[in-house]
C-alpha cells in the first residue's frame, strides 16, 4: 500500500513541479510518454523530455551556452526500479546516469547497489527532506515539513529524528554517475551537476509530502490522466509546438526503443566546440560557484577524465 501511494505521489509531484517551474522558453517539454516492455525488467513506462534551462545556468556557463539550449532526459520506469539518462548534443562528452531503487525502510540498506561499485568509488549522502537546507529561492513556508501537517492523513509535523520514528516510511536510493570530459570545464560542470541533482531530489521529495492532500485519494488511472493534462499545459506554457504526447495503453515492443544496459555513451561528436577550448597558457581556475565538495579518489585517465560516482539516499515518510 505504501509503495503504491509513493508511486502516485511521485508522478503527481513530477508533473506539478514541472508545470510550476516552466515559463515561456524555459521549463520541461514532454516529447514522449508511453508504456514500454523490457525483456528483463518487464512492464514499465518510457518518457523523453527536453529541459530548457539557459536562464537557470550559472553566469560562467551562460557565457558559452547558446540561448536555444536544452538537455534531453530519457527515463525507463520499471517501478520500484528506474533508469534515467541526461545528455546534451551541444556539450559532447557530457552525461548523467541515475539508477533508482525504492524500498520500505529509512535508508538502512547499505548494499542495495552491491556489486556495482567498490566502496572507495562511492560517496553516500543522506537527504533529509525536513531539515536539510534548500536554496532560498525554492523555499516556501507551506512546504516546510517541520511545520506542515496533513489534514487528510494527520501526518506531520516532522520533528528531529523523524526517520527513526515515522511509520510507514519509504526510501529512494539513487546511484548517480556524472561525466563531463572537457578539460578546463570538467570540475566546474561535475560539481555544479552534483549540487543540482541533490537540490532537485530534496525539493521534489519535500513537495511530494507537502502536496499529499492533493494526491492521496487518486488512483493510478487518475494520476496518469492528471499527468497527461498537465504535460500538455506545460508544453503550451513554455511556447513549444502543439505536443505530440501519447500516453497509450499499448506497450512499446522492446525492439522499438531499446533501454539502456549501462551508463549512456557520449552523444554526437567526441570533440569539444572550438570556443570551449581553453588556451594552454591560461591558468586553470579551481573554484566553482555553489560547489559540492567531493573526494578526489585519484582516478584520472589521460589527465582529464574523472567520473564522479556516488549514491543519494533520500528518505521520505509516506502516509498510510
From TrEMBL:
<dbReference type="GO" id="GO:0035091">
    <property type="term" value="F:phosphatidylinositol binding"/>
</dbReference>
<feature type="compositionally biased region" description="Polar residues">
    <location>
        <begin position="259"/>
        <end position="269"/>
    </location>
</feature>
<feature type="compositionally biased region" description="Low complexity">
    <location>
        <begin position="308"/>
        <end position="320"/>
    </location>
</feature>
<keyword id="KW-0445">Lipid transport</keyword>
<feature type="domain" description="Phosphatidylinositol transfer protein N-terminal">
    <location>
        <begin position="5"/>
        <end position="232"/>
    </location>
</feature>
<dbReference type="Pfam" id="PF02121">
    <property type="entry name" value="IP_trans"/>
</dbReference>
<comment type="similarity">
    <text>Belongs to the PtdIns transfer protein family. PI transfer class IIB subfamily.</text>
</comment>
<dbReference type="InterPro" id="IPR055261">
    <property type="entry name" value="PI_transfer_N"/>
</dbReference>
<dbReference type="InterPro" id="IPR001666">
    <property type="entry name" value="PI_transfer"/>
</dbReference>
<keyword id="KW-0813">Transport</keyword>
<dbReference type="GO" id="GO:0008526">
    <property type="term" value="F:phosphatidylinositol transfer activity"/>
</dbReference>
<feature type="region of interest" description="Disordered">
    <location>
        <begin position="249"/>
        <end position="320"/>
    </location>
</feature>
<dbReference type="GO" id="GO:0005634">
    <property type="term" value="C:nucleus"/>
</dbReference>
<keyword id="KW-0446">Lipid-binding</keyword>
<dbReference type="GO" id="GO:0005737">
    <property type="term" value="C:cytoplasm"/>
</dbReference>
<dbReference type="InterPro" id="IPR023393">
    <property type="entry name" value="START-like_dom_sf"/>
</dbReference>
<comment type="function">
    <text>Catalyzes the transfer of phosphatidylinositol (PI) and phosphatidic acid (PA) between membranes. Binds PA derived from the phospholipase D signaling pathway and among the cellular PA species, preferably binds to the C16:0/16:1 and C16:1/18:1 PA species.</text>
</comment>
<protein>
    <recommendedName>
        <fullName>Cytoplasmic phosphatidylinositol transfer protein 1</fullName>
    </recommendedName>
</protein>
Amino acid at each position: 500500500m505504501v509503495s503504491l501511494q509513493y508511486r502516485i505521489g511521485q508522478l503527481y509531484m513530477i508533473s506539478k513541479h514541472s508545470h510550476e517551474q516552466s515559463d515561456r522558453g524555459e521549463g520541461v517539454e514532454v516529447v514522449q510518454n508511453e508504456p514500454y516492455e523490457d525483456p528483463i525488467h518487464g512492464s514499465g513506462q518510457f518518457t523523453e523530455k527536453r529541459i530548457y534551462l539557459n536562464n537557470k545556468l550559472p553566469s560562467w556557463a551562460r557565457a558559452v551556452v547558446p540561448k536555444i539550449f536544452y538537455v534531453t532526459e530519457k527515463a525507463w520506469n520499471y517501478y520500484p526500479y528506474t533508469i534515467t539518462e541526461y545528455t546534451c548534443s551541444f556539450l559532447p562528452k557530457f552525461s548523467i546516469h541515475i539508477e533508482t531503487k525504492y524500498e520500505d525502510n529509512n535508508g538502512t540498506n547499505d548494499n542495495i547497489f552491491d556489486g556495482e561499485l567498490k566502496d572507495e568509488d562511492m560517496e553516500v549522502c543522506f537527504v533529509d527532506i525536513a531539515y536539510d537546507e534548500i536554496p532560498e529561492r525554492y523555499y516556501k513556508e507551506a512546504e516546510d515539513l517541520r511545520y506542515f501537517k496533513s489534514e487528510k492523513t494527520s501526518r506531520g509535523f516532522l520533528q528531529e529524528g523523524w526517520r527513526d520514528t515515522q511509520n510507514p516510511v519509504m526510501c529512494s536510493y539513487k546511484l548517480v554517475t556524472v561525466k563531463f570530459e572537457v578539460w578546463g570545464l570538467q570540475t566546474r560542470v561535475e560539481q555544479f551537476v552534483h549540487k543540482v541533482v541533490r537540490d532537485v531530489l530534496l525539493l521534489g521529495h519535500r513537495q511530494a509530502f507537502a502536496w499529499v492532500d492533493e494526491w492521496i485519494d487518486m488512483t493510478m488511472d487518475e494520476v496518469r490522466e492528471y499527468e497527461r493534462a498537465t504535460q500538455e499545459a506545460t508544453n503550451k506554457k513554455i511556447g513549444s509546438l502543439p505536443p505530440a504526447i501519447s500516453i497509450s495503453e499499448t506497450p512499446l515492443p522492446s525492439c522499438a526503443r531499446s533501454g539502456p544496459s549501462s551508463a549512456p555513451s557520449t552523444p554526437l561528436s567526441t570533440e569539444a566546440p572550438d570556443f570551449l577550448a581553453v588556451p594552454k597558457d591560461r591558468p586553470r581556475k579551481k573554484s566553482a560557484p555553489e560547489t559540492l565538495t567531493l573526494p578526489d579518489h585519484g582516478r584520472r585517465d589521460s589527465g582529464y577524465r574523472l567520473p564522479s560516482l556516488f549514491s543519494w539516499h533520500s528518505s521520505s515518510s509516506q502516509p498510510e
